[in-house]
Amino acid sequence: FNTENQRMKIRDKILVQKYYLNVFSGIFLALGLMLLTFGLWLFFDRNNLFSVLFSSGENQLVTYISYMLLGSGSFITFTSAVGFLGSVKEIKCLLVTYMSFQILLFVTQMAISVLIFVKKEEVHNQWNNRIDEVISEYGNESLAEQEPVWNILNAVQHNMECCGRYNVTQWERNKNKENSTQIPCSCIQSSPKKWFCDVPMDSTYSMGCEEYLNMWFENNVLILTSITISLLITQTFLITLTGQLLRNIRKNNIWPNE
């Protein structure tokens, strides 16, 4: 009777642990799919602001980030399937594999997080340099392939009512104007469909776009950081629960059938 009672307690523990393991696996899968979606967006939509400001010439940072997110999201989806199958069927081999994958992914994500923190200033400098580069190239007829980039810059300036990265005087450096007094039409409230307009500088938006662009960048970094931290916390629970579930399954298999 005592042996049967102990066995029932272990079975109850297994059921509870399987339930919570599947709940956290579901959360883990949802976060992984968010990373996968973000990676697909960066990979296929090359006219978004992030891609525009991080993909030019030899600078293909957005491509590396999209591959990293696609790889992480796909690996998380595969790992979640392995963990779910191992938990439901109580297959020790799959549970061990699942826990090993989780530990490997945890270490990798920690390394990526440290790398992002170390490189943040460098990335911010690249961001500002690329904005200045776009402003310098704006309206150059020999760079017609850059028009989608200029249209995005126009949309930012017109919608946010800002002009240049820091202010309107930055446009004095642009050499593609018919005369030095011209400014982008998107820097004024009325925006005709051409690159430059002849208007006095005091009638343009006075605020630069840097604050808005930095806020947009920080918000996206914050979203990715939040997902990464959530993944790390969820993985801590998953690794712990998987280890406990494995121990109880072994204990349950030790008891003789009566």
From TrEMBL:
<dbReference type="InterPro" id="IPR018499">
    <property type="entry name" value="Tetraspanin/Peripherin"/>
</dbReference>
<comment type="similarity">
    <text>Belongs to the tetraspanin (TM4SF) family.</text>
</comment>
<dbReference type="Pfam" id="PF00335">
    <property type="entry name" value="Tetraspanin"/>
</dbReference>
<keyword id="KW-1015">Disulfide bond</keyword>
<dbReference type="InterPro" id="IPR008952">
    <property type="entry name" value="Tetraspanin_EC2_sf"/>
</dbReference>
<feature type="transmembrane region" description="Helical">
    <location>
        <begin position="64"/>
        <end position="86"/>
    </location>
</feature>
<keyword id="KW-1133">Transmembrane helix</keyword>
<keyword id="KW-0812">Transmembrane</keyword>
<dbReference type="GO" id="GO:0005886">
    <property type="term" value="C:plasma membrane"/>
</dbReference>
<feature type="transmembrane region" description="Helical">
    <location>
        <begin position="93"/>
        <end position="118"/>
    </location>
</feature>
<feature type="disulfide bond">
    <location>
        <begin position="163"/>
        <end position="185"/>
    </location>
</feature>
<dbReference type="InterPro" id="IPR000301">
    <property type="entry name" value="Tetraspanin_animals"/>
</dbReference>
<protein>
    <recommendedName>
        <fullName>Tetraspanin</fullName>
    </recommendedName>
</protein>
<feature type="transmembrane region" description="Helical">
    <location>
        <begin position="221"/>
        <end position="241"/>
    </location>
</feature>
<keyword id="KW-0472">Membrane</keyword>
<feature type="transmembrane region" description="Helical">
    <location>
        <begin position="20"/>
        <end position="44"/>
    </location>
</feature>
